[in-house]
Amino acid sequence: MMKRKKSFIAAGFISTFAALTIVGAPSLFAKNDANTTVSKLEALSKFTRVIGTVEKYYVDDLTINEIINKAIKGLMTNLDAHSSFLDAKSFKEMKIQTSGEFGGLGITVGMRDGALTVIAPLEGTPAYRAGIKAGDIILKIDDKSTLNMTLDEAVSLMRGKPKTKITLTIVRKNEPKPIVVTIIRDIIKIESVYTKKVGDDILYIRVVSFDKKVVHDIKKALTENPHAKGLIIDLRNNPGGLLDQAVGMVDLFVDKGVIVSQKGRVKDENQVYKAHAKGTYKDIPIVVLVNGGSASASEIVSGSLQDHRRAVIVGEKTFGKGSVQIIMPINKSEALRLTIARYYLPSGRTIQAVGVTPDIKVAFGKVSVEEDHFSLKESQLKEHLKSELEKIDGNGAAKKSEDENLTKKSDKIITQEDLYNDNQLKEGVDILKALIITQERR
Question: Who's near 360: CB < 8 A, 6+ residues apart?
């Protein structure tokens, strides 16, 4: 029986790793009847003949170890998009990623229909600044085609020394031809949670990814804004992260019942995560924003809050990554990343390959506003006359300083212009205002 002493489960593409616990290989013939044993022996005999044939007749001279490694890689990639074989080089790089700093682009990628697809660029990273978008298909990394490339091989190529260049050729929906983007690698440092205010009553919380401080930072934001009447949680382009942080985040707003369950073939991997009443913000209205770049942990949060009827989900259908991977070393230098379970939301529905459908579907775009041209011109005229008066009175410098202070303050405020540039956010705010009004009238 496969049994882990300790595991570090991640609910996302960024950190799809587990604690490196040595797992004993199960016997091929344990607890099998005679017919099953014969069947397995015949299958192993066939596999051995294939290996022998390749070793003897293949055009290139391959060692038996190279043939076995290729066979294992083929097996793992044919299981699902997230299982893979980590050879000595890949295993070493995975350890570097989990324990030290490395140069990267700041994008989370996955395989969708056999294509290397951007799940989401992380805000503030080189990829984000270069204009990479969720849903972009990476066709080439430098001069290497990604067709038939494994996920680990692609990640390895994109990782590199900080300040070095990499060129991605991407295919983007509604673009007539592939786009070539050059990006400078850098050390990836992400502020996972940041907050803003919408007016005086609404608190906006943006969660970029689920690192180990997400629940702490959200609690802090709620404590610092005790008079907030409503909450916008923005999980768009959030590729996931740590499962315990996703569970903890839902637990802040749900006081009882199942948050998410994890089920696999091996009973030891089955888990049910439940909410606790203590410390729950159970009355504040919530709107959650999602899109196609919302994956795994962010799907658990949005889907669970939706099932508990604790939040209104607004935006676009999420990515659909609802499986659990662990790292299982097979010797000192090689390992398997293996899918061992799937996540299920409180209602029993799965996320895997399905995603979370928002309650209110809203495609991203700008809000069309018809301007009153006469009023606009009048306003411009008044501002112009004010500035002319300031030149005469000598108050221009003081006014400039005041404007700069207002600009600094606005970093923490979502303006009307911001809302008109993001119709998903505006829709979310409008829905939340209606929820607040409804709650106040009860």
Answer: 312, 313, 314, 427, 431
Q: What is the pLDDT of residue 247?
A: 96
Query: How many whole angstroms from its chain centre is CA 402?
Result: 39
| Catalytic residue chosen out of the listed positions 196, 229, 321, 433 | 321
> How many C-beta atoms lie closer than 10 Å to residue 109's C-beta?
22
Nearest partner of 125 among 142, 148, 102, judged by Cα: 102
Q: In this predicted model, what pLDDT tens digit does every residue of 176-202 receive, in sequence order? A: 999 999 999 998 777 789 899 999 899
pLDDT confidence band for 17 (50 / 70 / 90):
very low
Catalytic residue among 307, 323, 422, 433: 307
pLDDT at 326: 84
pLDDT of 209-232, one tens digit each?
888 899 999 999 999 999 999 999
Q: Is 209 a catalytic residue?
A: no
18, pLDDT greater than 70 = no
Measured distance CA(120)–CA(293) in Å, rounded = 5
Q: Which of 7, 83, 294, 296 is catalytic?
A: 296
Nearest to residue 10, comparing CAs of 339, 351, 344, 354? Answer: 339
Residues 341-350, mean pLDDT to the nearest whole number: 95
Please indicate whether residue 307 is annotated as part of the active site. yes
The pLDDT score that the predictor gives to residue 361 is 97
Q: Which helix (H) or strand (E) holds 181?
A: strand 179-184
- Enumerate the β-bridge partners of residue 391: none
Please enumerate in sequence order all residues whose Cβ is within 8 A of that of 140, keeping only pairs 6 or more positions apart, or say none: 146, 167, 168, 169
Give the Cα-Cα-Cα angle 127, 130, 135 (nearest 5 degrees). 60
Q: Give burial (CB, 10 Å; 0-12/13-18/19+) of 203.
A: buried
Q: Report yes or no: 239 and 108 within 8 Å, Cβ to Cβ.
A: yes
> Rounded to whole angstroms, how far apart are CA atoms 302 and 319?
12
pLDDT digits (tens, 9 = 90+) for 65-101: 999 999 999 999 899 888 999 988 888 777 665 544 5
Q: Annotated catalytic, 366?
A: no
Q: What is the pLDDT of residue 357?
A: 97
- The span from the CA of 75 to the CA of 71, in Å, is 6
Query: What are the domain boundaries of the chain?
Result: 103-187
Give the separation between CA 120 and CA 157, rounded to whole angstroms: 18
CATH homologous superfamily of 103-187 equals PDZ domain (2.30.42.10)
Residue with the larger pLDDT of the pair 173 and 299: 299
d(CA 159, CA 93): 9
- d(C-alpha 225, C-alpha 79), whole Å: 47
In whole angstroms, give the CA distance from residue 59 to residue 67: 13
